TrEMBL record, chain B:
Keywords: Cell wall biogenesis/degradation, Cytoplasm, Ligase, Phosphopantetheine, Phosphoprotein. HAMAP family: DltC. It comes from the Bacteria. SUPFAM superfamilies: ACP-like. Carrier protein involved in the D-alanylation of lipoteichoic acid (LTA). The loading of thioester-linked D-alanine onto DltC is catalyzed by D-alanine--D-alanyl carrier protein ligase DltA. The DltC-carried D-alanyl group is further transferred to cell membrane phosphatidylglycerol (PG) by forming an ester bond, probably catalyzed by DltD. D-alanylation of LTA plays an important role in modulating the properties of the cell wall in Gram-positive bacteria, influencing the net charge of the cell wall. GO terms for cellular component: cytoplasm. The keyword Phosphoprotein applies. Residues 1-77 form the Carrier domain. InterPro entries: ACP-like_sf, DltC, PP-bd_ACP. This is D-alanyl carrier protein. NCBIfam families: dltC (TIGR01688), PRK05087.1 (NF003464). The gene is dltC. Its main location: cytoplasm. 4'-phosphopantetheine is transferred from CoA to a specific serine of apo-DCP.
Length: 401, 78
């Protein structure tokens, strides 16, 4: 049976672009073929979850019904009242399937994974939870079942983002860009597709498939005779770090390009992250749609709550607590492994140190020029690479397996 | 005091320097305002003008210069 994983091979791109051709022609002539878009999206989602992956497809359907009922019910409730407890319960219920799927491997609940798990559950949960939070704020007032489904199941981003925002998405999907704008989007889409090919199928292939297994082997061999430590960790670290970037940035370029073809201006996910001047700058450039999601829905809300309720008086303590909580949650979201949680903690503490440095720099008028900036980029890059080595789980394999 | 002066006052206190001569500068771009300071700004505006400005209404493109903040506050009061 034909099964198509998103952006996995050349065949996928040919089929995808042929299927989207009528959409593009329609948009070029100022018309959005809504029904056709929906049918194409559903067919592609079906092809993702058919054959051996049918149980994931069933889980997706169940998940969508759950979220659909939840967001609908909460919107109805919110029109009449605004209780805090109800809001927390709704939020919790919305995250619950994801929590179960994340806890299942650690707790050895194999039936839970096969019952509830499907590729993309995290990314759908980000969208759904954000809708509940914005409904709480009164920013989303109506539940539109049709637009809800289109937002949640937007085909280019279903498996791994970028994470769009409901109100932004609705603006795009209910309008048609004018011809000049759409032509520019198509030009960008072509460029992104080719850049994505270079990133994912050339650079990431060389780094991740050709080089990485070799250096990992050398590191394992060397570590076994040197009590767990080896200089081979250095090439493992850089190879893994660059591979992570080129693989994910390549995928993100495909998702953005596909969505441009569909006349939706999805936000970009990466912006030269390895040229960041400090850790804060890095999180404005790396996996942007995720880090902004955490910034807006976790960090800022937590700070708001702490300050409003006056739980912590000191401003610096407040932001440090919020940084660490924010990054730890991000760590847990990646999965219940010590190295993901350590990665979260590393970045939480890193953000706190970074802020302390920025305050010191401002107060003491630390000199600033091209050389200090280059040095800052160098330091940030290496700090980030160390964190990626942690994130890779390779240390777990090296030391504990 | 006019809304404008009060907003500038709040911004000056949060940022820690006088911004009255850069009313159209993007303070996110210049790094003068971060997420933490943004929340302080929202809370201060809420107390001072008795307006509701929830975090999810806070769209960075609409709030990124002192003048835009003034306009936002005026529209929320109005």
């Amino acid at each position: 049976m034909l099964n198509l994983q998103p952006y996995a091979d050349p065949k996928y791109f040919v089929i995808l672009l042929l299927a989207l051709l009528p959409v593009a022609i329609g948009l070029y002539f100022g018309k959005r073929l809504n029904w056709y878009e929906v049918v194409v999206s559903l067919v592609f989602i079906f092809l993702m979850f058919d054959g051996k992956k049918y149980h994931e497809g069933v889980a997706l359907v169940g998940y969508m019904i759950w979220q659909w009922l939840l967001v609908w019910a909460y919107t109805l409730y919110r029109k009449k009242a605004n209780g805090t407890v109800v809001f927390y319960i709704a939020t919790f219920l919305s995250i619950l399937p994801l929590i179960l799927v994340k806890v299942a491997p650690a707790a050895n609940w194999t039936h839970v994974t096969s019952l509830l798990g499907f590729l993309g559950i995290s990314y759908l949960t980000f969208r759904s939870v954000a809708m509940i939070l914005e409904t709480r704020d009164g920013s989303i007032k109506e539940f539109n079942p049709w637009l809800f489904l289109r937002f949640m199941l937007f085909m280019p981003t279903i498996s791994s983002g970028p994470i769009d925002r409901y109100r932004r998405f609705v603006k795009d999907i209910t309008t048609v860009p004018d011809r000049q704008k759409y032509t520019e989007m198509l030009e960008k889409a072509v460029w992104y597709f080719f850049l994505g090919f270079l990133y994912k199928f050339v650079i990431s292939y060389i780094l991740g498939t050709v080089i990485l297994p070799q250096v990992e082997n050398l590191a394992m061999l060397s570590a076994s005779v040197h009590h767990g430590w080896t200089w081979w960790l250095v090439p493992v670290m850089y190879t893994y770090g660059f591979d992570l970037f080129f693989d994910f940035a390549g995928y993100s370029l495909f998702a953005v390009a596909t969505s441009y073809v569909m006349g939706v201006e999805l936000p970009m996910n990466f912006n030269k992250p390895f040229l960041s001047k400090n850790l804060k700058d890095f999180w404005n450039r790396w996996h942007i749609s995720l880090s902004f999601w955490f910034r807006d829905y976790i960090f800022m809300r937590l700070v708001f709550l702490i300050m409003k309720k006056k739980w912590i008086k000191n401003r610096v303590t407040t932001s440090n607590v919020a940084y660490i909580a924010n990054m730890l949650i991000m760590g847990f979201w990646h999965g219940l492994h010590w190295y993901y949680i350590a990665y979260g903690l590393f970045h939480g503490v890193g953000m706190a140190i970074n802020d302390a440095w920025l305050r010191y720099k401002k107060k003491h008028h630390v000199p600033h020029n091209k050389f200090t900036e280059a040095f800052a980029i160098f330091i940030t890059f290496n700090v980030v690479m160390v964190s990626f080595l942690l994130f890779s789980g390779f240390l777990d394999k090296l030391w504990f397996k | 005091m006019a809304v404008k002066e009060e907003v500038v006052d709040i911004l000056n206190t949060i940022i820690g320097e006088d911004i009255s001569d850069q009313m159209d500068d993007d303070f996110f771009e210049s790094g003068l305002l971060d997420s933490m300071a943004t929340v302080e700004l929202l809370l201060d505006l809420e107390t001072k003008f008795d307006i509701q400005a929830p975090v999810s209404e806070f769209n960075r493109e609409e709030w990124n210069t002192p003048n835009k903040v003034v306009a936002k506050v005026e529209s929320l009061i109005g």
